[in-house]
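Consider this one:
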Amino acid sequence: MLIDRYAVLGNPVAHSRSPFIHASFAQATGQRLVYERVLSPMDAFEATLRRFAAEGGRGCNVTVPFKFDAAAICPRLSDRARLAGAANVIRFDAEGWYGDNTDGVGLRIDIEANAGQPIAGRRVLLIGAGGAAAGVLGPLLEHAPGEVVVANRSIDKALVLCERHASWARQHGSALRASSLAEPGQSFDIVLNASASSLAGSGVPVPDSVLRTDALAVDLMYGPAAAGFLHWARVRGARAQDGLGMLLEQAAEAFLLWRGMRPSTAPVLAALRAQLAAEAAAG
């Protein structure tokens, strides 16, 4: 019997926990599948994706830096992927590839359900304007924050992202604006790092004043890559959280798209936390 194949495509991709996550989901739900890592050359994402599909792949996740490319390739997109202009999950359907974006719903569940932080009426700072930020902005606005500021090194890129979401923000009664990294404003309730600063190992790119006392600060990365941002937030009195919970929740949404069922995330999150703790202890 053939076993359905799935994968995560990105560059880099060796660090990805997605194979463990989806193997755990499959075991818990009785699904037969294999899930791999596929490293795509920076200039050959489409060719890599088409080769995986031609070799029998049923679907894939897409990670940095290819989420905008994934949306452009798919002839069919979910509403949230179309709004974002980015896709992090693809299902290879006979009638045409279908692209979706589960990053935002994953982050929203992690913030509200796992961290216990309401979004409605709160001031949110979103750092970054790349594929990760594009994926989460729409679902954040859907839950009616009072204000969302998108801060990016290139303010023009932040302006484009805000313009794409301007009507959506108005529909949900949220103020939305772009800013530079140097002057995004002060005292936010929720600060989200969706920039490449953690992955690059560089410093936190915004002033300390963005954090309100007891703010929730979330780095969309996890493990050692998120350590600097989390330390910065904790020593300034914020509640710091990495992106592991978001990773699990968005993966569960992808599994639902592919297999028609949404697995429980809590046992897998506990197992991943234990893995990371063991790796940190081992040096």
The CA atoms of residues 45 and 128 lie 22 Å apart. The two ends are 42 Å apart (CA to CA). The mean pLDDT is 95. The longest strand covers residues 211-219.
